[in-house]
């Protein structure tokens, strides 16, 4: 078998066989196929797509490229959630402890942020001492004992995805539904959860720019997961503006803690409650979503969800006092308010631009080598639909050094204005 024949076959929009897909994945992981050839194939896939059968074969080949995690020793229903990425998305930090307090077993592997998209591991590491890298036995034991662990992906788990994603990132081949779906589901299958909730985002700050594209991606991932015996659900959610108000690692940890105390932003709270209700119903832990939502609200009200977060932080070496007292989290040297110059309504707070601006002051990384400053970021004072007048605060900037005038102007123009009232934004477009 020659790899160039596989490239040419896909160039002519022909379907690759399971044998061909398995062969090139295994050879690429082994270092026997060069990046420049795989780049050519990835571009052909981006341009010409893959059938459901090809995507399924690619998912299984990627999953089998390394070790998998057997969670069968853990008593109870093992659940996981995955977001396709967005600005201000701190869902795991609130949803995970809430699910654990409701009796689910949350075995979660998360990633780091790159560009305008934040990473769960970066947020957790803003907590003093938090260890994202537990060995497999410790991970399983912690999930069994307290119901939740959140760790980074191990080097031996789905190594094909690590190599392919790094290559896709630098060759303009990220935005492909078959490649995104196989990347996500191969990792979810390898991580061992029985029930998987997907938050597939669309809009300015997401990979999928339209709701239609997000639905297509979600349906493909549901198909792939269910074909392997998993229960999979998906929510299609809007990422045209940041989720919640905080953008930046320590700031988002604080907002997650606020949410677990019943004081979080309305949009973020709604997403967490809806997602949790879906998971509990799918896992058979509640009769339906209505009961699931009541249960999620109850663990906020009685403090048991916040207690689970503190237990997880403490178990993974973190300073749980920073959860009990979020004012102890890293703080920026400066906090600068940005004021409105106009009167009107916020038509949109552009997610992509706000994420980029936060990254540029240290809240994210443009390359994998960049250092994150956990105390930096942006907290929105106004969001879509809000009325503002000159002098009202649009946002607070948490920063380390002087802010350039051009940067501040970009922040100001990230808020699109309207003279007329703006209809209420629908955060959750559809549940599949």
TrEMBL record:
Presence of the UniProt keyword Ribonucleoprotein in the record: no
Domain of life according to the entry: Bacteria
Stretches assigned to the Pyrimidine nucleoside phosphorylase C-terminal domain: 345-418
UniProt KW keywords: Glycosyltransferase, Transferase
GO cellular component term of the entry, any: cytosol
Biological-process GO terms, alphabetical: pyrimidine nucleobase metabolic process; pyrimidine nucleoside metabolic process
Annotated EC: 2.4.2.2
GO molecular function, one term: 1,4-alpha-oligoglucan phosphorylase activity
InterPro entries, sorted: Glycosyl_Trfase_fam3, Glycosyl_Trfase_fam3_N_dom, Glycosyl_Trfase_fam3_N_dom_sf, Nuc_phospho_transferase, PYNP-like_C_sf, PYNP_C, Pyrmidine_PPas_bac/euk, Pyrmidine_PPase_CS
EC class (word): transferase
SUPFAM superfamilies: Nucleoside phosphorylase/phosphoribosyltransferase catalytic domain (SSF52418), Nucleoside phosphorylase/phosphoribosyltransferase N-terminal domain (SSF47648), Pyrimidine nucleoside phosphorylase C-terminal domain (SSF54680)
The reaction(s) this protein catalyses: uridine + phosphate = alpha-D-ribose 1-phosphate + uracil; thymidine + phosphate = 2-deoxy-alpha-D-ribose 1-phosphate + thymine; 2'-deoxyuridine + phosphate = 2-deoxy-alpha-D-ribose 1-phosphate + uracil
NCBIfam families (alphabetical): PRK05820.1, PRK06078.1, Y_phosphoryl
Quaternary assembly: Homodimer.
Function noted in UniProt: Catalyzes phosphorolysis of the pyrimidine nucleosides uridine, thymidine and 2'-deoxyuridine with the formation of the corresponding pyrimidine base and ribose-1-phosphate.
Family: Belongs to the thymidine/pyrimidine-nucleoside phosphorylase family.
This protein's name: Pyrimidine-nucleoside phosphorylase
Organism encoding this protein: Frisingicoccus caecimuris
Top-level taxonomy: Bacteria, Bacillati, Bacillota, Clostridia, Lachnospirales
